[in-house]
Amino acid sequence: MPDPTNINMKLWVNVELRQQANTRDLIVDIANMVSIASSASTLYPGDLIATGTPAGVGRVVAGDVVTIEVEHVGKMAIPVVQGDKGANVVFEKPYEFVRAS
Fold first, then answer.
1. What CATH number should be reported for the domain holding residue 59?
2. Spatial separation of the C-alpha atoms in residues 54 and 60, rounded to whole Å
């Protein structure tokens, strides 16, 4: 990877580009994220460190396809499947998506 401090990332739901960000805009930079994560746990090749969520969060439903692309890493598409197990207090109320104007 040429420069981990300048990586473009994109996320689509179906064909709609919902999120687009760059690592240069992170609140905690990549080096410090690795330092923080490795202070709490041993890191191994292939481990993922979540960077947080850029603007553009929205609803996904069963049948949608979420595609992510990370520059210099690759692209993958994941179909959304409705689960029938588990519960979470966050989802007790119906989700209401309000788009900022």
1. 3.90.850.10
2. 16
Structure-token pair, residue 19: 């999120």
Q: Please indicate, yes or no, if residue 30 is contained in any of the structural domains.
A: yes
Q: What is the pTM of this model?
A: 0.71
What are all long-range contacts of 30-38, with beta carbons under 8 Å and residues at least 24 apart?
Answer: 30/4, 30/5, 31/4
Q: Which domain holds residue 63?
A: 8-91
**pLDDT per residue rounded down to tens, the chain (101 residues):** 789 899 999 999 999 999 999 999 999 998 999 999 999 999 999 898 888 888 888 889 999 999 999 999 999 999 999 887 766 777 677 666 677 76
Query: With left for phi above 0 and alpha for psi between -120 and 50, is residue 23 left, alpha or beta?
Result: alpha
Q: State whether residue 22 is helix, strand or coil.
A: strand
Q: Is 37 helix (H, G, I), strand (E, B) or coil?
A: helix
Number of domains in the chain: 1
